[in-house]
Amino acid sequence: MNYTDEEIVKMVLAGKKELFGMLVDRYQLPIYNLMLRCAGSGEDAADLTQDAFVRAFDRLPKFHGDRRFFSWLYSLALNLLRDWQRKKTTRRAKHHLLEHEALDYGKEVSQDFGPEDREDLHLLEKALFHLPSHTREILIFRYRHGCSIKEVAKAFKISESAAKMRLKRGIEQLRDMFEQEDTNESQKN
Amino acid sequence: MSRKKIDTGRIEDLLGHSREHKPPAWLKQEIMTRVTHREKNYLQRILDSLRRISTVRVNPVQLGVTMAIAVLAFWAGTMTSTDDPSDRDSTQITIPADITDDAMANYLVGRGLLAANQHQPALEYLSKAAKLQPERAEFVHWQGVAFWAAGNHESERQSYYRSMENRPEYVPSLVNLGHSYLESGSYQTALQYYQQALKNDPSHPEALYNSALAYQMLNDVEQERRAFSSYLEFYRSGKWAQRAVKHLHWLGDFSFRSYKIGGRRFVFNMEALLDTHSSRHGREVDLLARTVNNTKGNELHIVFYNHDHKAKARTAALSLRQQLLRQLDPQTTPPLRISWFEAAETVTLMSGRKKQLSPSLLIFTHSLDTNNRRNST
Q: What is the ipTM of this complex?
């Protein structure tokens, strides 16, 4: 059965805990990647993703369906990340990342992309990581996950006009970074 | 020179196609395990407690005295507290003006600012402290930490080196130098510093754990396995112990296993528990007994597997039961249930594949509240 998120939430709240797995299937990829980009470590990202879903499960009774489940979950994950970053910076980063990437964490590439698209995508991904994380995450939330300005404003706790402004500036910054990366690559070649 | 210009529409389109890393295969299973065994949260527990309290009969005199004490305590609190609203802002740090030449004061203020994530001012105070008393290793060390927080990694390392001029064995700086080189990809150099730190503090958790990670990055599987095992010789509970076990399992080494005992996970050396002749056997049984002693309201299950030696499994099971009963507190000992099978234990690996373990040992607890009890010997 292809239930909507809201239907699944209702059934989980009615006692069918196992259906929460459908929400995990749907959203573990974007949440894990959000954590990975910000935490920088596969292990920390996995821990934070677990914590985000467990926190979402605990707070499901507070989800009233007045916004999309994904947007609600993402806001919750962002809050969790902020708490984690605050705690982390009080001490020296210690246990470094566990890299199982070569074994288990492949990257998915769009099938319909030609060689030039792939090259641009590669440059864009490099450029993205030169942006401040806050700007980067707003852009990804809006354009990668297709969220509305209203959802961006709510998730990042800013006004809608501030969201529009940050997105506009973010895109401009990213374009500049992209061109810079392109120049660097040209010089290498 | 730039090869091409790109418009914002193209940037937006590319963003929509940006690639994502696959989460580990075991992630969903871990989430669902936590969700399925989720206990009620604190609020729900408090509400449940309040419901229980409402059914308790209360002596009006006792209640009156308790209320009077509570009111008095509240009044005393309001009289002794300040009304200055700035005191309520936990993020605002008021720095005394007259600390210019006091190294310790600068150091303490710097540490406070660092803890409050105010990296730049923290660096200024900690640098001042380090300048005033360069012979104090911890002042110079923390200046390095502030450089790290501010993103200046070269100055960070220089501070650690300076902190060790008078104390070459200063462990915090050795460890942080290890971290710094590990993060920059200089794994061999990182290992040298971690090993130097471990000579002075053999149980340093970060040096032990990160040595294993450095070996992993150098593809030295045997040293990685040894290093994670060394970490687990000292640390058996908490997130890092669980991770170390996962690393070992990933390497195909199941000598250490993680078992859920009374709601928490603990790591035990399964090999030592199975091998009664091992010098580590007694220590491991002690550890298991101490852990079990702290779990109330549960019965403990220990299951032995040996696919071709049922008699051996039985002997080991009965021997462990006897040893545990000798050490457990008879007043608080949970019911102890031992079973054995002439079969291998099947475990699910992180990749989702199954693996057969023999001989093997499974330990778990079962709440006494539930009716579904097993009748094993």
A: 0.85
Per the CB < 8 Å rule, is B1 touching A113? no
B22 close contact with A: CB closer than 8 A: yes
C-alpha–C-alpha distance, residues B177 and A115, integer Å: 42
Output the pTM of the full model.
0.60
Shared domain check, A77 and A17: yes
The answer to whether the Cβ–Cβ distance between B2 and A186 falls below 8 Å is yes
Q: How far is CA B369 from the centre of its chain?
A: 29
Determine, for residues A101 and B21 on separate chains, whether the beta-carbon distance falls below 8 Å: yes
Q: Domain boundary residue among A95, A121, A139?
A: A95
Contacts of B191 (CB under 8 A, 6+ apart): B178, B211, B214, B215, B218
Q: What is the pLDDT of residue B72?
A: 56
> A89 with A118, same domain?
no
- Higher-pLDDT residue of B325 and A41 is B325
Q: What is the SS3 assignment for B299? A: strand
Asked if residue A109 has pLDDT above 90, the reply is no
Can you tell me the mean pLDDT for B266-273?
92
How many domains, chain A?
A: 2
The whole domain housing A161 covers 113-189
Q: What is the mean pLDDT of chain B?
A: 81
CATH code of the domain covering residue A172 = 1.10.10.10
pLDDT digits (tens, 9 = 90+) for B338-377: 888 888 888 877 666 778 888 898 988 877 665 444 433 3
The answer to whether the Cβ–Cβ distance between B35 and A53 falls below 8 Å is yes
Best mutation target, A8, A24, A177, to test chain B (most B CBs within 10 A): A24
Specify whether A71 is located in the same domain as A41. yes
Residues of chain B with C-beta less than 8 angstroms from the C-beta of A17 = 35-36
- Beta-carbon contacts below 8 Å between A and B: 163
Tokens of A88: 């982390």
State how far residue B321 is from chain A, nearest Cα, in angstroms: 36
Phi, psi of A92 (to 5 degrees): -65, 135
